[in-house]
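Lab notebook, bench 4. Still working through the backlog of constructs that have no structural model yet. Next entry is a single chain of 303 residues. Request: give me the structure tokens for it.
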Amino acid sequence: MASSCAARALVWIAFAGVAVAQHAPVSQFSGASALDATRKVSALGARPVDTESHRRMEAIIVRAVRGYGCAVEEQSFTAETPAGPRRLKNIIARVVGRTSEGTVALSGHYDTKPVEGHNFIGANDGGSSTGFLMEMARVLCGRPRRTDVLLVWLDGEEAVRNWTEQDSLYGSRYLADLWVRNGTAARIRALINVDMIGDGDLGLVNEANSTSWLRELVWETARELGHGRHFSAAEEMAIEDDHIPFLQAGIAAVDLIDFSYGPGNSWWHTEQDTVDKLSASSFQVVGSVLMKVLAQLENRKAI
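Model written out:
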């Protein structure tokens, strides 16, 4: 992404050779479980698009989500990048609703930025959104909601070379365009994008591009749950992230991102972005808030 402003026993489930710890009943979001999932995918090392580690992560996500009881769409496509064509894949899990009253989407990217000279594992930037959505799948899949819920692992958020409108947001641009063409965009009540939400010192940006009523709903819910200090009320900051193509497609969207990662954001896109900087409590805050927001969006009669 780029800124325009500068005593339960563990239950282990094995999938794709990786074990994920579950620390809460299926109906409850567990920050510890989300952190465990993030730790496992981060152990694969750097995961830029169209690499072997990236493909291994795709397999982990798909097998896990299917095991949780969700239908999964693997949306493969080729993107032209400054480094040549790259094979990408959006992964979409569907939780089937009891009604046909629209769809709510939760999204985040799972790729990591290619960084020359070192093994950038992106535990927070790429890893935390991946692990968060995997935990959401554990909680939501196989448990019908009022409306359809889509869990979307977006590929190619990071620039292959340098961030531009063309070299970034590959997966979200592809999906937003597809949703406009096939009519899905008109059915999406709201899209909530998460990015870099595992920081142990969690402070989410008051993101200026986000749809105002949706951002206010999330922020008010956080205050009601006692988590207001993690949701900034400071001056707005405009962030270019995976929510932008969906906004351009006419979909209400909000971006939840902590853009102060380490002193002066100094851990971002560096070797310092490691799992020891993350906290289960940060995942728990975001998960608890979004579980309640999801219920509110499902019951909302008019957008």
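Notes after review: The chain has seven helices and ten strands. The two ends are 28 Å apart (CA to CA). Flag for follow-up if needed.
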